[in-house]
Amino acid sequence: MKFNYLIIISLFFLGCKPEVDLIVYNGNIYTVDHDFNVAKAIAIKDGLFYEIGTDEIQKKYNSKETINLNGATVLPGLIDAHCHFYGLGLNQQVIDLVGTLSFKEVISKLKLNSNINSTIIKGRGWDQNDWDIKEFPTKSKLDLLYPNIPVVLERIDGHAYLVNQKALDLAKITVDTKSSSGTIEKKNGKLTGLLIDGPMELIDNILPELSLNEKKQALLNAEKICFKNGLTTVDDAGLSKEIILLIDSIQKKKELKIRIYAMISNSKNNLDYFLQNGPIKTPRLNVSSVKIYGDGALGSRGATLKTPYHDDPHNYGKLITRPDELKNLATRIAEANFQMNTHAIGDSTVKLLIDTYSKVLKNKEDPRWRIEHSQIIDLDDIEGFNNKILPSIQPTHATSDMYWAEDRVGSKRIKGAYAYKTLLDKSKVIGLGTDFPVEKVNPFHTFYAAISRKDMNGYPENGFEFENALSREETLKGMTIWAAYLNFEEKEKGSIEKGKLADFIVIDRDIMSVKLDETYKTKVLKTFVSGDLVYLIQEP
Fold first, then answer.
1. Do 170 and 123 lie in a common domain?
2. Is residue 539 part of a domain?
3. 3-state SS of 152-199?
4. pTM of the model
5. pLDDT tens-digit map of 487-526
């Protein structure tokens, strides 16, 4: 009798299957692991991938929840390697000028959306390169319409303001005001209202302070947009101490679920605090890098070039951070064991950074310092990229800028512009982002631009400098595991592998096999962070 009882107990325990929290099965799951394996099912437990394999996983485990994917495609949670997450949120609180086709249309949007009783009127997104008359606007119309309210209109790339006279007066900017890190535009001895790069800070200093609730709401609004687009990690390229600590506090309260790789903005207050106190690393926040501005943008002719602009023969652009400052910052950042991520658009700035990084990193084993944008490069300087100096690039910049970029730099220099495949050959990894809100948030626009080198209208037919297109596999890696690598996070995210964070998305088509012009139309059906559903598409 005793023997039979023991057999029954043994059979009972042998029949018990391990418990997991979620099983997704019957899918087309791109793991983006070392061998780029494709799986059918995933088991998730305690916020981590527990097992990846075939639909046999269903038989191995009891699960609190199961999802039949019905053949849908799954990708690791996407990472935007360079964006302005907080800026995206703030943009939801200002007048949207993206896509305006003339300054007249800008004015129409201001009239329609501004309040004459406001303390300030703010807008963002204009781009004179999209207009028939591709000249910078002036403040004359703003002065006429809004003589008593400061107006601040930010260019799409964030590197120029158009402001009215009231704003100039409040900021105490006159024709005699000097700037060594940007341009205060003048015409016939008078201010035009255009400020490029450095002088913009004088306007920032007079803007009204946002409330804590407005800042928090900006972060939550940005998160909602990112989850809808399948982004589970964002690299915010420049945040203040105040916003970073706010992010940390609301993440700990589980009010903000997105993962953020926060680059510290270059200011004395920010650097003194973080470089002294050391990095912050939680499951949702990584603060271990510093964002520096080397130069400005190509669209506003603020990028620094080795030889003058092709369409402005007396202009070389202007550095935002002087060479001696860059060297001092690099030395200090390296000594604190932080990563340095520097904005560099022009070939002169890229060369300066390669030289500066190379000297400072000589004895550093695995620094992974980044050159953000790596946009216009002298082909002789591309050799400077390696496993210590890595490119972080934005494929949609190539397809947005291609209409006018050659006008700026000329036919010879354009061969080293947006040279993503050449850069990848040198560095072996490359991080892909959007630079939103400069470009749209949608990462499938990034995917399409990288592999096609075309815009969404299919132009140009053979692709812009198509020899620098990336393969689909390279592109997906650049949006997942390689982006994680640039953040020193490749062991915890970026692929669907046992023990990694269970961040993944379900999409409506197989981007690795559908026709090229179908890829950018991809919709995200579901987004998961740590195995929790954070976004579900609303069916029409």
1. yes
2. no
3. EEEECCCCEEEECHHHHHHCCCCCCCCCCCEEEEEECCEEEEEEEECC
4. 0.89
5. 999 999 999 999 999 999 999 999 999 999 999 999 999 9
